[in-house]
Structures are given as structure tokens and as C-alpha cells.
Amino acid sequence: MTAATAAPAWRPAAPVPCAAPLPAVDRLRVAPRAGGWTVTARVAVDPGDPNLAGHFPGQPIYPGVFVVETLCQAMAQAVPGAPRLRAVTSIRFLAALLGGDEMELTLDVDPAAPATGAASPSEPGWTVRGTGRRHDGTVTAQLRAVFDAGAGA
């Protein structure tokens, strides 16, 4: 692998104040690609996390809303202007994330295309397609979302 094609390095994820105290991204990797970015976020599912205590007793499962939070925190750290979630247009939860698992959420982030036939131009933003996988490769979630461009857009 040459320096030009080397995979970007993992970096420690920074806390996102709007979501404290739920850290939903442990590590983050951002790679530019034609027209956008590929963002990869990893989060370990801690079976002792008090947020999981009631979901489900005896077998803590990482709730689907936490997958959405992982998406939001990854976008806030990776994309210029700290975009905000406008809509989750599709989400499917295909396998459970249990205590001890690690989820890797890979996101393809592209500029939002203007709406066709709209009375006014669409607001700037980002479209996101993502896949979550457990450490064993099992697909746990598939999603599509739209983010506002955020500050400074």
C-alpha cells in the first residue's frame, strides 16, 4: 500500500457535549472519497453501562436509539460545520448488539441533492447511507438519513 492509498488512521473520539453523558463513539476514522466522505465509527457495548440496565434485564442489548446517537456523534465529529440530524429516512435493525460486542458503523456521506420539482431549492445538507456490523461481521443495522449542513454552511 502506498502512502497515497493508505487507510486513514484511527483517532480517539472526542466527547460531543449535546449527548453527554452517553459516549456513543469510541473511535473514529474519516476518509475522503469522490464527492464526500466515508466515516467509520466504533463503539463498544459495555454490559455494565447503566443506560442498558432495563434493555433487557439479564441480556443487555444496545438500543436502536443508541445506534442513531452513534450516527449523530460520528457526523458531528467528522463533517465540517457539525451537521444536525434532519431525518432518519430508513432504518432496519437486523441483529442484536449485546454486552461485549463492538459495533462498527460505516457511513457514506454525500452532499444532499436538490429536491426535484420543489417550489424552492432544498436546504444544503448531507445524505448518509450506513451499515452497522458486529466484530464478527454480522450486519446489525442499515440506515439512511439526512443532515442539515450545520453552522457556517
Walk me through what this model shows.
By secondary structure, this protein is mainly beta. Helix content is 10%, strand content 37%. It contains one helix and seven strands, in the order E-E-E-H-E-E-E-E. It has one helix at residues 64-78, and strands at residues 11-12, 27-33, 36-44, 85-93, 102-111, 125-134, 139-148. A seven-stranded antiparallel beta sheet has the order 1-2-3-5-6-7-4, covered by helices on one side. The longest helix has 15 residues, at 64-78. The model has no long low-confidence stretch (mean pLDDT 85).
Describe the secondary-structure layout.
Elements: E1 11-12, E2 27-33, E3 36-44, H1 64-78, E4 85-93, E5 102-111, E6 125-134, E7 139-148
Antiparallel strand pairs: 1-2, 2-3, 3-5, 4-7, 5-6, 6-7
Q: What separation lies between the terminal Cα atoms?
A: 35 Å
Beta-strand proportion:
35-45%
Q: Can you count the beta strands?
A: 7
Biggest sheet overview: 7 strands, antiparallel
Q: What's the overall geometry?
A: globular
| DSSP summary: helix tally | 1
> Roughly how many Å is the radius of gyration?
16 Å
